[in-house]
Amino acid sequence: MKIKAKRKLITYINLLDQPMRFSPFVFSRNFLLWALLGIIGGLIAGTYWIALENLMHFLAFFDGWQVIPTMAAAGLLAGLIIHFFGDPGEIDLIVNNIRFNKGRLNSKNNPSMVLSSLLCVASGGSLGPEAPLVQVTGSTGSWFAKVLRLKGEDFRSMTIAGMASGFTALFGAPLGGSLFSLEILHHKHAAQYYEAIIPAFVASCFSYIIFALIIHLGLAPVWNLPTYEMHDKFDFVFAIVFAIAATFVAWIFISCTKFLRSIFYKLQMPVYFKTTAGGIILGVIAFYFPLTRYFGHHQLNQLLSANFSVPFLIAILVFKIIAIAVTVTSGWRGGFIIPLFFVGATLGLIIHKLFPSVDPALAIISCMAAINACVTRTPMSTTILLATLTGFAYFIPILFASLIGYFLAPRIPFISSQMNT
After folding, report:
1. What domain range includes position 103?
2. For the chain, does the N or the C end have fewer beta carbons within 10 angstroms?
3. DSSP one-letter string for 146-202
4. 128: β partners
5. Is this prediction's pTM over 0.85?
6. What confidence tens digit (pLDDT) does each residue in 290-307 have?
7. Can you count the helices (H) and strands (E) in the chain?
8. What CATH number did the domain enclosing 311 receive?
């Protein structure tokens, strides 16, 4: 043993005597591939976002009663695209493929996903573009891995890196986007694919740069929360209380979604009938409550800057939950993370209106964190994402609220493919 230790010491001394050099990692083949994948992901996300913004501006001209036939027509067209071009699936399919299909995401249904989601999101559906972007950029990562003949965890890591690049581009949070792409895969095994952390982070950083250059994205927070002022060192206790209330609302949303899903399933109608029916319902809701239209990216700032009454906020909360549930269950395509943030912000404002002594920023951020963590089971990435998107500098209240939502979530996850097998 002494001889081995002596040899190791001599080897270490010899290494110290060598001249200092750059780590070969920065100039390695893998790093360049992850960076290239991130650049491509940023280009895809930037192109998608520009197309979405232009289509949204065009369809926004149809307001008032015209929103009902507009959303019905968009639902019909999206349903026909899915019927003839193939069903691209939802987030459950992505998670299943990463976990059980060796990380392979098929790109053959990307045209269907892109076209249908553009119609659904731009016309005013209550789902955002994060799921389509994750599918398209993730399948691009799979294509990369296939071309390079990667296998095993290297293949899966490339797919996850592609997913992270798409998610990061939309939210402008490289660390949160990287972690979310891992955490969403399995709520009990966020570190199961730890080998993909660095690839995801590298791809996310490059994707963020490209996306920011394309759409002129700044470094400022996306949502303008009121300035938080710590009133007591135990403010995190209030965050827990607010999180419990938000978790209760999350359970209502999950129950509403399951109920509507069972109704649409029993009807056994073609997908274009379901999407048309969903469009009519969403159009009626948007007609009476225009703030519930769209996925909430821009509407959240409108909500925060206005001074709405409690009854109006309660109506917005109820009908936004219904709108998200209808969008999810009627075959419309998109992601529900930003809409859930909108619901959480609405609930936080209601709590502040009912109890004026409550700090509005603390109530809003706690509810946003808890409801998203409860539904998606991603407490770590939710904490980082919200801190980045809102500029809320105090991590502890967000973390406590996220953990409350995570641990009080239903036994059967909303994303069914997160179940243990």
Report:
1. 29-215
2. N
3. HHTT--HHHHHHHHHHHHHHHHHHHHT-HHHHHHHHHHTT-TT-TTTTGGGHHHHHH
4. 335
5. yes
6. 999 998 888 888 898 888
7. 17, 0
8. 1.10.3080.10
